[in-house]
Amino acid sequence: MSGVNEIRSTFLKFFADNGHEIVSSSPLVPRNDPTLMFTNAGMVQFKNVFTGVEKRAYQRATTSQKCVRAGGKHNDLDNVGYTARHLTFFEMLGNFSFGDYFKERAIELAWTLITKEFGLKKDKLLVTVYHNDDAAAGFWKKIAGFTDDRIIRIATSDNFWAMGDTGPCGPCSEIFIDRGEHIWGGPPGSPEEDGDRFLEFWNLVFMQFEQVTPEQRVDLPRPSIDTGMGLERMASVLQGVESVFETDMFRHLIEATSAALGQGPGKDNIASYRVIADHLRASSFLISDGVLPSNEGRGYVLRRIMRRAMRHGQLLGAREPLMHRLVWALVREMGQAYPELVRAETLIEETLRLEETRFRKTLDRGLAILDEKSVGLKKGDMFDGDTAFTLYDTYGFPLDLTQDALKSRGISVDQASFTDAMDRQRAKARASWVGSGDTASEAVWFPLREKLGATEFLGYETETAEGVVGALVKDGAAVDQLKLGESGAIVLNQTPFYGESGGQVGDIGVMLGEGVRFRVTDTQKKAGDLFIHLGTVEQGTLKAGTALQLDVDHARRSSIRAHHSATHLLHEALRQVLGDHIAQRGSLVAPDRLRFDFVHPKPITPEELARVEDIANEVVLENDEVTTRLMGVDEAREAGARALFGEKYGDEVRVVSMGKTAREHGTNALGWSVELCGGTHVKRTGDIGLISVTSESAVASGVRRIEALTGNYARKHANDAIALAKTAANELRTSVDDVPARIAALMEERKKLERDLSDARKKLAMGGGASASNGASAAGVREVGDVKLMARAVEGIEMKDLKSLADDGKKQLGSGVVAIVGVTDDGKAGVVVGVTADLTARYNAVDLVRVASEALGGKGGGGRPDMAQAGGPDGAKADAALAAIEKAMAGA
Ligand code: SER
């Protein structure tokens, strides 16, 4: 008997030994398919390789692929727990040939593996082929030696496998095992085929065609092979048990549940144990692939799975949240094959614990209502859809949970009245939008939001994906197409492009489809969570309904991530250096810079700023993982997560933590920096590279702003500064180290030269030169009556020096009046009049300076009787001003 892990590795090794490349499972959220909710088959990641669009380095591959069949087209959720073989999460083992071998070799390999490696007995096996596939039937006869009655021809789509309405497809051949007469059921094609006796465990698809549109089917470039074996089913066969839930892996998970509950399963409640084990796997793998519970799309399917398990935990009498206490057991079983599970263990535990804690708050009350309203109902009755809606809307019971709760009593839910109640509520919500005062040009988005639902954002996990165009908008109105050269907005069902929010700018990039290219120049969010991609059609015509390959400008986004994470680190570092009052007021996270505004009453000193930068860079160097959790907003606040002041948050918030936790570092229980944030971040703090704070300033009273750069931008900034220093050193003919001393010396020298120059000018001014009044002596001294008047007009002397010139003049004269008009470079004038002490009784300097000022076109002037100063706009009148003083003295 082989354990699940052994079967998986035997399968992969067998195909590796036969020239197949072992390829890792792709994520559960398909990157390359715009319509699939979850990866539901091994071939999903190879879809484009089959059609020849994508080339790989190998032509044969083998995988063990994580699959989820819940929500969307393939939905097994309702059956899980109640049948022997349905699972929401399962592993599909497969081998693939991309135009290499075809039918014969595929059948040969399959036959060798199951009979030689797995030791299945030929007489228990039988196969189906598509009704007209004589070739496949012939190979089975030749290779397995089957007689015709063991090769069943099926004409229905059961034996023609198609991925969906479009995509690669072809006839297939399924391998069945007869598990014995004691189990009810008949061979494929018989009326009893739905029974469990004949179990299909491997499907070999002979990929030959591509369904291009629902009407058009073309040949694939080369015939190929896609096979899918249900690992859990194979394990049940090899382990000789009737149900997948009795295989080793599920037994271990059910044991862990029993241990956590302190009680094991019995006949009446085994289904609950099975539901919990399956849903634990589905939820954990979805969370580790980046899906978090939400109220729409993939997140809502996850929530439904989680809550369904949680109700079964409640049924089993769990008093405390249960699911998160089982994660260790799953990691032990599957962590080696899927390391992503180990990496996400804490996140999975926390997400389950929080969801269960929150759900439990309403679970009891909801169940009581369910009991109360269904008390009189009997098998075959219908439960009221209005109540089912209340349970959904108020108590968080997804419809399938209510259905599941009533299933065992044979009661169904009135879905029509449930949908009515839902529609009524939508109409109410619509009415409130109309009243929300949005401008007319924005009104286009609300109906689109309602029609298309929220855009699924894939950009936390990936920067490339496929999406389908749900709507096109041009000049504020929905249109069917955008033609070459036209600009507009695209709404898709899902997108890796980040829509501007929380300070982080929107992504740019390119979208490609058959013969069409759209250049995205910005991404915005409208009506809450509708992502709109703005840009221009660069090739072809873009039509609604088209599938597009979506590529975010990767380098730009990486840099945005670094700047966003750096903003968080600076925020915490600021708080540590400046104090707890630091509260964020706004931020800008761009590819080439970041800006962070916060409350702080005074400028930050250079020393404080240096410490902030040091601390933030220390955390960068620690290179710890950046983790994202989903939490209730109150729980997040209690846990010390920082939030933007005054911002409205939903019930649930993403919480981004970086750096070491309280245990290791003595700060917050979740990490060193913990913030509510919907933005995109680096994987590890080391990815930031370097943080360099480039400026600190005030934006409003009490609000400071810092600006900073990260990674290459920080490095380039530093290099530019060094280059500048080198240029300066060259100019100064010295080394970079000596630049400060050299500049200080030059400044000193310059001051001295300025002083010398000023002295020289004064001397020159007082010794003649500039201009002097007519009839003056060389020094410009004349007699007015018995009084000496020194009258000079000077240029190139600073106004502040005029007074000292007048003082000098007074000393020179011993007794007399000094009048100096200084003309500035821009043609204005200043005038100073000095009167020696012995003459102040006769001449008042203030009166004389006013006379001069008037002549210069000015007014006023002031000072003391021995020294006064004034100015005027008209420097050309310097001589007239001096003449006016002389005249005033003569007349006095
Ligand atoms: N694609 C096929 C299936 O899902 C075989 O892998 O059954």
Low-confidence stretches: 769-778
User: Would you give the CATH topology of the largest domain?
Assistant: BirA Bifunctional Protein, domain 2
CATH superfamily of the largest domain: Bira Bifunctional Protein, Domain 2
The chain-level mean pLDDT equals 90
| Total number of helices | 24
- Mind telling me the C-alpha Rg? 42 Å
From the N-terminal CA to the C-terminal CA, the straight-line distance is 131 Å
Q: Name the CATH architecture of the largest domain.
A: 2-Layer Sandwich
The CATH class name of the largest domain reads Alpha Beta
Give the ligands present.
Answer: serine
What general form does the structure show?
Answer: elongated
Number of strands: 36
Number of domains: 6
How much strand? Answer: 15-25%
How helical, in percent, are the residues? 25-40%
Overall description:
It is an enzyme of class 6 (ligase). It catalyses: tRNA(Ala) + L-alanine + ATP = L-alanyl-tRNA(Ala) + AMP + diphosphate. This is Alanine--tRNA ligase. This protein is α+β, with helices and mostly antiparallel strands and 892 residues long. It has six domains: 4-244, BirA Bifunctional Protein, domain 2 (2-Layer Sandwich), CATH 3.30.930.10; 255-380; 444-552, Beta Barrel (Elongation Factor Tu (Ef-tu), domain 3), CATH 2.40.30; 560-718, Threonyl-trna Synthetase, Chain A, domain 2 (Threonyl-tRNA Synthetase, Chain A, domain 2), CATH 3.30.980; 734-765; 780-891, Diaminopimelate Epimerase, Chain A, domain 1. Strands 1, 2, 3, 4, 5, 6, 7, 8 and 9 form a nine-stranded mixed beta sheet that branches. Strands 30, 31, 32, 33, 34, 35 and 36 form a seven-stranded mixed beta sheet that branches. The radius of gyration is 42 Å and the shape is elongated. It starts with a helix and ends with a helix. Mean pLDDT is 90; it is low at 769-778. Bound molecules: serine (SER). Serine binds at residues 41-43, 94, 161, 203, 205, 226-228.
